[in-house]
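Board notes (copied after class):
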Amino acid sequence: MKKILTLLMLISCTTAFAQRFDAALWGGINACQIDGDQSGNYNHFGIRAAVNTTFSINSDEDSPLRLMVELGFAQKGAYEPNAGRKVNLNYIELPLMLTYRLGESFRLGAGIAPGLLVSSHAYYPNGEEDLPTSNNYRKLDALPIVADLTYRHNHLLFSVRYENSMLPVSIEAASGTYRIFRSNMGQFSRLLTAGIGYQF
């Protein structure tokens, strides 16, 4: 009898956990630029791969408000058409977003997406690598803001995302722009993402 009760409790706890949390795998394409380096528009392309979960932030499981936690890999950077120079910045990101469900199919999200720079390279048309580039960018992109719109069809998810760094990603810059305050000067990552995912 105790074994049966224990089994029933485990099943009920697992069911409650599954109702409270969900999980999804994602893949996508980033269209990127670096504001302040004269690289032009979103003409650098990279990949994004991630896993995330959303969960209710209150006791009401039917609440449209949920918190999303994500762990992902994102290729960012820029392409300077005048110089023919391509900059690749690879990050491990941890986006945190508050999401709101619109009807049965759409979800809006907004938050921050701090990222840890794991590698950086610059290439010229002749194939030479700009070796000092790895010392030109900060290891932490601490405050990118992010907004997300997701459409769900059964287990398939389709998403568009906008991300914009609020603190400079460059350590020093010969040219630059600013965010919010003029003293907050440097180069800033900006990107658009189109992604597809599968929700379990």
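Comment from the instructor: Residues 2-20 form the longest helix (19 residues). The longest strand covers residues 65-80.
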